[in-house]
Amino acid sequence: MSVRLVAIGGSIGASGRPSRTETALRRSAAAAVAAGAEAEFFVGEQLKLPLYDPSSAVRDLRAQRLLEAVRRADAVLIASPAYHGAVSGLVKNALDYLEDLREDARPYLEQRVVGCIGVGSGPQGPAAVLRSLRDIAHALRGWPTPLGVVVGAAPTDLSSGSDDRTAAQLDAMGIELTDFVRTRTAARQLLG
Q: Which of 69, 117, 118, 161 is 20 to 30 A from 169 (CA-CA)?
């Protein structure tokens, strides 16, 4: 069974290179893909969405693509940098758009497994972001994985594996995403 994964996160950097947050997101998603998932990414510039306005039904093409991808998703992976001890406005705004899924057969993130990653320069910010992302996932009826990952102040090159502990956690969470989707699917089939 293929698992449909939507990966949301990152930041907009001036360097033209992926941010640490996007690198962590891609590392975890790569582990999910290796375990049989198909991943679709909404990162950096793709998250420059108009401010969510619940009073308007007009959605730009980027927001429509995000919503359609989440509708099809079995799992969602969310990574946010810590901005002043909280989820970045860029990521939070993207998650606010999920309010448009409230009338769906699977509203919000219902029946979807959610992986959460907090990234920051110190120990407190990314831990606070991880807690916030878990709270947001619960509020949206998602199922956060038991393992959430904090990418903190240590020098980190997750693409080359120089931070083996964090890289291993990101890999484990990607695998958990696919395993939990398959376990939930099998349980629902048994219950018929």
A: 69
- pLDDT at position 161 is 52
Eight-state DSSP code of residue 97? G
Give the model's pLDDT for residue 162: 53
User: Quick one: pLDDT at residue 46?
Assistant: 92
Q: What is the pLDDT of residue 97?
A: 98
- Indicate the burial class of 118 (C-beta count within 10 angstroms; 0-12, 13-18, 19 or more): buried
Q: Can you tell me the distance from the alpha carbon of 3 to that of 137, in angstroms, rounded to the nearest whole number?
A: 19
Question: Can you say how many angstroms the Cα of residue 3 is from the centroid of all Cα atoms in its chain?
Answer: 15
DSSP output for 27-65: HHHHHHHHTTEEEEEEEGGGG-PPPP-TT-----HHHHH
Q: Residue 177: which of 113, 130, 131 has the closest Cα? A: 113
Could you tell me the two tokens for 117?
A: 């990653």
Q: Which pair of tokens denotes residue 64?
A: 């429509």
- Taking only the tens place, the pLDDT of each residue in 62-85 is 999 999 999 999 999 999 999 998
- Side chain identity at residue 87, one-letter code: V
**Which pLDDT score, from 0 to 100, does residue 86 have?**
94
Torsion of CA 178, 181, 187, 191, to 10 degrees: -150
**CA gap 25, 182 in Å, rounded:** 21
